[in-house]
Amino acid sequence: MKLLTIAIDGPAASGKGTLAKKLAHHFGYAYVDTGAMYRALTLQAIRTNTDMHDEDALVALLQTMKLEPTVSGGIRINGIDVSNEIRTPEVNEYVSTLISIYPKVRESMVALQQQLGDRGGIIMDGRDIGSVVLPNADVKIFLIADVEARAKRRFKEYQQRGIDDSYESVLEVLKERDYADMNREADPLRQTADAIALDSTNLSIDEMFEAAIKIIDAKQKETY
Ligand code: CDP
Ligand code: CDP
């Protein structure tokens, strides 16, 4: 059977990573989390006190970084795994409203992502995968969920990880990030005409996975 390229886009905490990992395990495919790449640059900018309003300084910083997204959804900067460090409220605050808005930053990220996606048997998630990074993907899923459901999920995740943040603040930041991701000029979050929407608001993780499998099966039947 042909090895597929699967693109999953959608807003923050809609379940993209969870779904992508389950699908990758099911099909034996690689998984690339492109959000982790924007998060890694944000983390490095915080650590090096780089001015996050200065696009050229960010591009220069990116050039000093050997950014290695692992095929299991993690990420290394210059050989060091930062998969946990990138998922903090501080990184969340800057990643969507500053770091990912810059066209030159995006250009470098997209080039790297296209190299990784230049083969079948891959699942990539983000905001612009179906629209910009892998426009020829075999299957495009646009995963959505109500913002309150997403905030509850992220809040629960923070509680489990011992991160001190209130539900109200998580909800507020998610709304800000949704706005930034949908309204930036460069490669905004949008559903392409050939993407299939999947609403995970009232779906358990297993139900979401089953729904995605049905979408992929239907798409394969349509193609062959
Ligand atoms: O995990 P969560 O959904 O909260 O976010 P993420 O997927 O890790 O992405 C973090 C941020 O990076 C997003 O809010 C976007 O601003 C940016 N991003 C992007 O611009 N393009 C992508 N392909 C992936 C992420
Ligand atoms: O990658 P993205 O930010 O879109 O979302 P995620 O990190 O995969 O999921 C955010 C949280 O929602 C995780 O804690 C998942 O376990 C949870 N989740 C859920 O409870 N039910 C779903 N149907 C999907 C995700």
TrEMBL record:
GO terms for molecular function: ATP binding; CMP kinase activity; dCMP kinase activity. One of its GO terms (biological process) is nucleobase-containing small molecule interconversion. CDD domains: CMPK. It catalyses: CMP + ATP = CDP + ADP; dCMP + ATP = dCDP + ADP. Its EC number is 2.7.4.25. Residues 6-216 form the Cytidylate kinase domain. It is found in: Cytoplasm. Keywords: ATP-binding, Cytoplasm, Kinase, Nucleotide-binding, Transferase. It comes from the Bacteria. It holds the Pfam family Cytidylate_kin. ATP binds at residues 10-18. It is an enzyme of class 2 (transferase). GO terms for cellular component: cytosol. Its main location: cytoplasm. NCBIfam families: cmk. Belongs to the cytidylate kinase family. Type 1 subfamily. This is Cytidylate kinase.
